[in-house]
Amino acid sequence: MTKISVVLPVYNCEEFIFETVASILNQTYKDFELIIVDDFSSDNTVSVIEQFKDFRIKLIKKEKNTGYTDSLNYAISIAKGEYIARMDGDDVCVSTRFEKQVAFLENNPDVVLCGTAIKFIGLDNGVKIYPLSHDSIKIKLCFGTPFCHPSVMGKKQVFLQAPYDKKFEPAEDIHLWSRIVNVGKVVNLDEVLLHYRAHSNQVSVSNREIQKQNSFFVRMEYLKNFALKDKFSDEELKIIFIHDKIHSLQECEIVIKFFKYLESKNFLINEFDVKEFNLMIDNIKLNMLKSFFNLKTFFRFDSLLFFIKHSNFTDAIKILNFKKRIKLF
Questions:
Q1: Domain co-membership, 255 together with 159
Q2: Is 81 within 8 Å of 32 (Cβ atoms)?
Q3: pLDDT digits (tens, 9 = 90+) for 250-278
Q4: Rounded to 5 degrees, what angle do the CA atoms 175, 146, 167 make?
Q5: The domain spanning residue 31 has which CATH number?
Q6: Could you read off the pLDDT of 69-90 as tens digits, one per residue?
Q7: Which structural domain, as residue segments, surrounds residue 270?
Q8: For residue 12, with 0-12 CB atoms within 10 Å meaning exposed, 13-18 middle and 19 or more buried, which class applies?
Q9: Transmembrane region positions (predicted)?
Q10: Same domain membership, residue 161 and residue 105
Q11: Which helix (H) or strand (E) holds 144?
Q12: Number of domains in the chain
């Protein structure tokens, strides 16, 4: 039995696909098949792929464009491997990626999915380390993305049990993680095993708005035990989960009320580790408040009353320190 099925959906990525495929074929771990599903590209993507003469490559050429999640689910449905490794057509694997992920999964049979740290290439740079433990990943999923999608490797059965759902594109990965965390243990390795390319052809502004909306629906389901819709209107919840900035003191009130409720509710139902959860929501709350208060608005009379009303002097000092970069005594 093949150990790994590498699932690589591609569409119009002729500029980067050669480097991507080469990085997969040059892995130190050799027992894999590479399933490439081309979504009816209109450029030379297929021609570039066909330059490779490697028996491990299975190239599927769709006769019409049916979308990213269709490509993923089809590839998984024909996969012969014990594990599914994800890749995208513009990223680059470190040569030891498969070797290290397989070793980890084999040595930790209770783990069903394993991601890695990444190094940005292209228009961005730097390294990103994702939450490492299962509990930290569950908490991160409340407000963020706990994995780099093309870095993950997991048991094929998990992907069959929780297939990608087209209606959540382009947030299909968030939806997937929200279900897999309840199937088994998930982790991230703190080692960079993927070079993630940032470039101008990624998610467009319009798609980013759709992504936010679909992520919102996923998180409402994920946090259903908090009964958020019983306490807050959709508009109030969208201020928290969708809007980038706070625009009024009224919205600041909603933010403080929301995070205070989250903290107390989690203490009661014990959904997430209390200490780590409180630390995360305190940071998110503070960053949201910083988006509204600046040196001009901070010293307005109504702003000062706001902090007095909420006895929120710790946040006030943190915000002022952030804005002025000075120490207050």
A1: no
A2: yes
A3: 888 899 999 999 999 999 999 999 999 99
A4: 15
A5: 3.90.550.10
A6: 999 999 999 999 999 999 999 9
A7: 223-324
A8: middle
A9: none
A10: yes
A11: none
A12: 2
